[in-house]
Amino acid sequence: MPGLAAMLRALDETALTRLQDAPFEHSPLAAWLPVEELAALVDLPAISADSVEPPSAWSAHIGGRKWQQIVAFAARMPVAADRPLIEWCAGKGHLARTLSRLHGCHVTALEWQASLCAAGRCLAERQGADVALVGQDVMAGDATRWLGGNGHLAALHACGDLHVRLIELAADHAGAVTLAPCCYHRTAAERYRPLSRYARRLTAERGLALARDDLTLAVQETVTAPRGDRRRRARANAWRLGFDALQREVRGIDAYLPVPSLAHGRLPETFAGFCRWAAEQKGLALPARLDAARFEREGQRRLAEVERLELVRHLFRRPLEVWLALDRRMRLEEAGFAVELGTFCARELTPRNLLLRAEAEPRGKSVGRRGFAPRPGQR
Ligand SMILES: C[S@@+](CC[C@H](N)C(=O)[O-])C[C@H]1O[C@@H](n2cnc3c(N)ncnc32)[C@H](O)[C@@H]1O
């Protein structure tokens, strides 16, 4: 695509940040790529909500943003008196407590970490919420014991395999699902296997193959990250690129050398310190007189270039996420659910703001609960 790379390299910082945050708005990439079509693909409706205003005291022990997500999620969750409520991967059961107090009902909250269960039980008891926090590995075979034929499964930000497991079990055992998926790449399988027959057929026909690493693109959005975090991440990336330039020169080999990742907060204080650490990891001897400043500048230059060229990837971030959510929707529809897919909150509150709201159709209405009910025009 002649001219595209040159245009991207010439973008100033303001344009770069604007396009990182809003890839579809007034994008100069539209001269080369189908920006409008991609924007239309991700234009999902906001899921309708009941008016829910829990007292602010209920937010005690919950982070501010998480609390707002819970309120937005709960407002979109239809709770029926005759339907057992189960929260999936509940953490301390913040959502479960809120639902229990809002609707005066019992909620079973499944979570595998014993410490979170214990903390959640204390909170539920203190707040008089009718919540049973149960230590349960949802991937284990016995997870089905919590599901009746009519239960309502709810999960706010259940990662990859955990929410896939929810969907698979719900297809056979649940009456309703309210799910905000996240971290699609957290999966044991290295290659993505679509959940729905429809997507499996489509990907086979079109030769579309997604590796686990490809799926990380769907969640690479830093819109809610505090500015300080963004700055620290940018510095770490520039240092990695600077070290890369250095190792190529020292080894005399023009090839990438993977350096292990460092836990948050463990990055050395200076670029020279980072190079010493990285060299040690790779068993590389650095020259005694190292011009660290030169390589630090080179890292910054390369980062500026990478960030600009990556704007092309950013255009496909949300479309991929929506595609994965559509696959989940189709899986539930094929199992006989009526499903809505839309957003449950602004993306500034969480970029993982997609919600699947599904209700098992009365038997006989669909071609078959647990059977394939194609939507018109989708054969
Ligand atoms: C991303 S957190 C979401 C927690 C909560 N829903 C929220 O929105 O704050 C995912 C939770 O799943 C739990 N989890 C991870 N693997 C699990 C498993 N196999 N069985 C049950 N819970 C699991 C984690 O301990 C964690 O609390």
From TrEMBL:
InterPro entries for this protein: Methyltranfer_dom, SAM-dependent_MTases_sf
Pfam families: Methyltransf_32
Keyword RNA-binding carried by entry: no
Coiled coil start-end: none
Single GO molecular function: methyltransferase activity
Protein's UniProt keywords contain Transferase: yes
Alphabetic keyword roster: Methyltransferase, Transferase
Record-annotated Methyltransferase domain positions: 81-188
GO terms, biological process: methylation
Name of the protein in its database record: Methyltransferase domain-containing protein
Origin species: Billgrantia gudaonensis
Phylogenetic placement of the source organism: Bacteria, Pseudomonadati, Pseudomonadota, Gammaproteobacteria, Oceanospirillales
